[in-house]
Task: structure prediction
Amino acid sequence: MENKGSLLSSRGARIAGYEGILGKGFDMYVKDPYEQDTNPQGILNLGTSENKLCYDIIHGRLTRPGMNSLAPHLLQYSNVQGLESFREEIAKFLTEYARAQNPLDPEHVVVMNGCCSVLASLTAVLCDSEDGYLIPTPYYGSVYPDSWLYGKVRPVHVQLDSKMSDGESRPFMLTVKKLEDAMTEASKQGIRVRALILINPHNPLGDIYPAHLLKECLDFAHRYGLHVIIDEIYMLSVYDGTFASVHSLDRLPDPERTHIIWGFSKDFAMCGIRVGTVYTQSQEVRKALNQLACFHGCAGPVQQVLSHLIWDQEWINNTFLPANRRRLLKSRSILVNGLQKLNIPVLKSSAGLFVWADFRKFLKTQTFEAEMDLWWKLIHEKVYISPGQAFYCSEPGWFRLVFSDTVNKIQLGIERLQQALGMLAACDGEDIPTLVSGEDSMPEPENIDSDSDTSDELKDLADTTQLKKIAVY
Ligand SMILES: Cc1ncc(COP(=O)(O)O)c(C=O)c1O
Result:
């Protein structure tokens, strides 16, 4: 008899039916993107976490002679775990830049086509369908589809919010007590929790976990026999503060259950190159990952080019990293200053490509529906930023804004926000946000674009942000 039902299995239907938390509107900006010359009325994307500040430097390095030699073996099938030569360079690189206690072992590195593939594969091999993993909210929202589409594994949210309880030094602060509470709640609901996922430096908060908290989290996971997946994809995108990688800790309570992710998308400003890695000491986990790695492999020539790139620590230390940090810090300051002039508070950030900003006063009601309304109004005014619910934030009204773009675009973004919020205020009969001029006015683009600033100037930029108490709640 003819089957008139779906062509898909129930798994296929689940995958096809996944729309993302924001549904169909999510990729509006893709259909009508702002282009200065060809589509100036298009939607300005300050929502996608891409670093557009360093193309000149990366391009210069990637096009040096010798980078693209194509050895015959690169056209053959290769080790699914990643080329040995590439894994050796990754191990050396992570030993150096993550300040590992001991030299890392190339055999413990698995290479895939991006950290999303790593997250999807890891959750699929560590958890069974319907198992859960603890993850503090807000968090990088793609962790959900990464773990759900393949493995049908689900998040158990550790809900953080902006209210600060006794002993807490910042909003959205993670504590082991909150992990314990979420664990208890999961067991009441009959969810078997298999892992803890942490993102450090954090997306979307832009902050860094202190080493003592990391250790406490690892001890907590060990007490419950949980795997820890720690995503350090923003490890080198730190512009204000000190980052401690899990690699740098003197002791791991459960090395076989600790899996550390890093990739090229953010720290080397190349999300199009699609390369991510995981470092895991467990041979069993690597064996399982390698079975999936053959579906998530990364082209040999790409691995070769990246080997040359990370081998060159002289270039990384003296050219790329200083310029990248300087540009991130400048762009962050421009965006934060602009937001402050619209009276939009911003959480203090130390790393990443974005800030986490408080738009609660612009919501008609403190609900996620009102957050979506505001988001659509901003899209209507041609500026796309990411609403908190894309990160499973428990409190409506927070948005993530990406600053790693040209000065012109950031300034245009501020103008469009002002326009949109002004229209809202006008409708509500409230004060219209205005950009304050005078001493506080935004730096001129040409000053900001220059790479010639001294560390004193940089410090001034950072201090300005501090002094204005933008981040103080
Ligand atoms: C925390 C985090 N992990 C992973 C990814 C995805 O990385 P990739 O481009 O390597 O797949 C992102 C991208 O935004 C991210 O923010």
